[in-house]
Specification:
Blueprint: E1 2-6, H1 11-22, E2 26-31, E3 44-47, H2 55-59, E4 66-69, H3 75-85, E5 91-95, H4 122-139, E6 144-150, E7 153-154, E8 163-164, E9 167-168, H5 171-177, E10 182-185, E11 195-196, H6 197-207, E12 216-220, H7 228-238, E13 246-249, H8 251-257, H9 263-269, H10 278-284, H11 292-305, H12 312-317, E14 319-322, E15 325-328, H13 332-356
Parallel strand pairs: 1-2, 1-4, 2-3, 4-5, 5-6, 6-12, 7-11, 10-13
Antiparallel strand pairs: 8-9, 14-15
Helix pairs in contact: 1-6, 3-4, 7-11
Protein name: NAD-dependent epimerase/dehydratase family protein
Pfam family, one: Epimerase
Family: Belongs to the NAD(P)-dependent epimerase/dehydratase family.
Length: about 350
């Protein structure tokens, strides 16, 4: 089939592009042409702004059977897609998110029918509105719609997307590698399930032209879900580092003392959640084939080849490429984590002394 992939060079979509070609599909990617991601030579490329009002006219010359949209983030984005593809393609596959679900959840694992209101975040609310618009188009026969909901996805791309308590960057990798303590929210026994991008990408390929997936929604994410404590131990093993020095600080304390640094924690990290992927297994042949330590080693190798995990001295003195942009690399994140740990240890030690006295 001829598949039009909107995006095509991001963390997940680069893997989707490669797997579509390997599966024998004709592939065209549509983006602004600003990425240097490596994709197969056979892939056609159309330059267009996915979010521009002229997107439907720019994409009109492409005659595809299936559209995979990695860049539909809101109801207005969904409407642009409907304007562009209604009556012109057989199937439209939308990338959504598990953020559409209400959390904390009523029970685990979370199935596709779990309550969506209120969604976890503003991002989730916008994705939910986009889902509704796309499914309404499906119901009136504009095209067959399939919606995929990934969770946290990582892989050898950009900064690797290996999350930590304060978000996504390589600060924790450097600290773990160098044997420095790291902050862990709560007692570290909450659950966190990263899934490698190649496993997530396989579900997109499995959905293409798959009539069982028409009109359906799928969770496509980790089935093996470690605790945060074990997650950091896996990072340490992948870095050939000693067992990490985990400093547990209550989540509420972190939200209070660092509101400008805990957006990820507030919306995602604090929730202990698992997701039911049995439907994706049944219809899309989904399987989590890449064990976490193997996948993290792949990311670490990728980052080390690019000197993306630097020493503290390097971070003070050098510049680096961050998410495709050259900018000075600051030690601010390291200093924040170090200062927070020192203050917490001082205060808890003082509390223990006062209480015992």
């Amino acid at each position: 089939m001829h598949v039009l992939l909107i995006g095509g060079t991001g963390l997940i979509s680069t893997a989707v592009t490669r797997q579509l070609v390997a599966a024998g599909h004709d592939v065209t990617v549509c983006n602004r042409g600003e990425s240097d991601a490596q994709i197969p030579d056979s892939v056609e490329h159309v330059r267009a702004d996915r979010f521009g009002d002229d997107f439907p006219s720019k994409i009109a010359p492409v005659h595809a059977d299936v559209v995979i949209d990695m860049l539909c983030f809101s109801e207005s984005d969904a409407q642009l897609a409907i304007d562009a593809f209604e009556g012109k393609v057989e199937q439209y596959v939308m990338t959504s998110t598990i953020d559409v679900y209400r959390r904390p959840v009523d029970s685990n694992p979370v199935a596709e029918t779990a309550p969506r209101h209120p969604p976890t975040s503003d991002y989730g609310a916008n994705k939910a509105a986009a889902e509704d618009a796309i499914m309404a188009a499906h119901d009136r026969g504009a095209f067959a719609a399939t919606i995929l909901r990934p969770w946290t996805t990582y892989g050898p791309h950009g900064d690797g997307n290996l999350c930590h308590t304060f978000g996504v960057d390589t600060t924790y990798l450097r600290r773990i590698r160098d044997g420095e303590p790291i902050v862990v929210h709560g007692d570290g026994t909450g659950l966190w399930g990263p899934c490698h991008r190649r496993d997530v990408a396989s579900t997109y390929v499995g959905a293409v032209g798959n009539r069982a997936a028409y009109g359906e929604v799928y969770n496509v994410t980790a089935e093996a879900v470690p605790t945060w404590n074990e997650y950091y131990r896996v990072l340490a093993r992948a870095l050939d580092a000693p067992d990490p020095d985990l400093v547990h600080i209550p989540t509420d304390v972190l939200l209070d003392v660092a509101p400008d640094r805990t957006g990820f924690l507030a919306d995602h990290g604090r929730y202990s959640t698992t997701f039911d992927t049995s439907k994706a297994r049944r219809d899309l042949d989904f399987e989590q084939t890449i064990e976490l330590e193997r996948g993290v080693r792949e990311v670490v190798d990728y980052l080390e080849e690019r000197d993306a995990i630097t020493s503290e001295d390097d971070r003070r003195e050098s510049s680096g490429n961050v998410n495709g942009e050259e900018r000075p690399v600051s030690s601010e994140d390291d200093q924040f984590v170090g200062s927070l740990i020192a203050a917490w240890r001082d205060q808890t030690s003082e509390f223990v002394d006062v209480f015992e006295a």
